[in-house]
Amino acid sequence: MALLEVKELSVVYRTPFGIVNALNDVTFNIDRGESLAVVGESGSGKSTLALAVSRLLPPNARYVSGSIMFDGINILRLSSSEIKRIRGTGIFMVFQEPATSLNPVFKVKDQLMEAVRIRYEKEGNAFDESKAINEIMSVLRDVRIPDPELIIERYPHQLSGGQIQRIMIAMGLLMRPKLYIADEPTSALDVTVQAQILKLLRDLKREYGISILFITHDMAVASIIGDSIMVLYAGQLMELGPTKSVIYEPRHPYTQALLSSIPKISKDEGKLPAIGGTVPNLLNPPTGCRFHPRCPYKMDICSKVIPSLVKVDNTYVRCHLYGQ
Ligand code: ATP
Ligand code: SF4
Ligand code: MG
């Protein structure tokens, strides 16, 4: 059994302007010790997916259909106190917007200590403060926090967004959850820190068998962190498969377009080929395949019928060019 099984998940937001169709019929699994990178342009539903899996959607969101099984439990059926028990050592999430992540009334040190204490408890070990502080310092150095001795004595409002983001990443490393969800955790960081954090997450996965759901808009980052890649577009899952297949044999026209917009260091190609058009407004998404207004291979059927997810070799693709 996979650690996370998401089936036919659809989520909407209610807004004063109407219903936003943020996720439509999304299905995927993450096995224990495996990582899935979710890629897509802004507004494709990546954060909605992460929040939906963590049961942290805002009050105006609604699960329309589907199921989310985590470690054999249907998390959509849990009460809010039951879901609180799963958060932390079960599912840990690093948010895209770091400002709200830490508790404003406690110092960083207290919050990290609490994370280690919870893990010790889960592992059945007695809490050892000096051991915990050594572990915290070591992880803060790993995530490249300068002067960690000073930083841990601060309150969240005394830190920059980038520092809070790295402290949250560190908190997840200290907690060793079963599923580590990270929503664009490195996009605001410089490339050296970004590379170090991707390496830390890969080590965490290898050493402790932790599963990772990593969200990024960057195919290059996705290919480093993901055993598999899922490509989302306008709330639809367009392609899902092992990283090698998605990167070297992309089947979906949208995946192909995303890949051709990555800069190739070895070639001087001048300007990057941007994908023509813009991500649609999900208040009124395109009918049929949501990519059809931008797709160079568009056929008559594309604007009329939503393509099913079909298996092509080891990859799932939602496109009328495949299947029947
Ligand atoms: P980004 O790369 O910009 O973070 P994303 O892929 O994470 O984008 P989401 O934030 O999941 O995309 O948004 C998906 C859709 O849902 C968008 O159309 C967005 O405007 C809408 N949306 C997100 N949050 C809310 C909300 N709280 N209320 C209403 N609509 C929302
Ligand atoms: Fe393009 Fe049609 Fe495939 Fe959509 S279903 S990606 S419009 S060919
Ligand atoms: Mg987002």
Radius of gyration: 20 Å
How does CATH name the architecture?
A: 3-Layer(aba) Sandwich
> Which superfamily, in CATH terms, is the homologous superfamily?
P-loop containing nucleotide triphosphate hydrolases
Helices and strands, in order, run as: EEEHEEHEHHHHEHEHEEHHEE
Total tally of structural domains: 1
Give the bound compounds.
Answer: adenosine-5'-triphosphate, iron/sulfur cluster, magnesium ion
**Helicity, as a percent range:** 25-40%
Q: What fraction of residues sit in β-strands?
A: 15-25%
Shape: globular
The average pLDDT is 91
The DSSP helix count reads 10
End-to-end Cα distance: 30 Å
Number of strands: 12
The parts where pLDDT drops under 50 for at least 5 residues are none
The side-by-side strand order for the widest beta sheet comes to: 6-7-8-3-9-10-12-11
Q: Sheet with the most strands? A: 8 strands, mixed
| CATH-derived topology | Rossmann fold
CATH class: Alpha Beta
- Computed structural class: alpha/beta
Structure, explained:
- There is one protein chain.
- This protein is of the alpha/beta class and 324 residues long.
- It is 32% helix and 24% strand.
- It is built from ten helices and twelve strands.
- The strands form two sheets. An eight-stranded mixed β-sheet has the order 6-7-8-3-9-10-12-11, sandwiched between helices. Strands 2-1-4-5 form a four-stranded antiparallel β-sheet, with helices on one face.
- Helix 3 crosses helix 4.
- It starts with a strand and ends in a 6-residue tail after the last strand.
- The mean pLDDT is 91.
- The structure holds adenosine-5'-triphosphate, iron/sulfur cluster and magnesium ion.
- Iron/sulfur cluster binds next to loops.
- Adenosine-5'-triphosphate binds next to strand 1, strand 2 and helix 1.
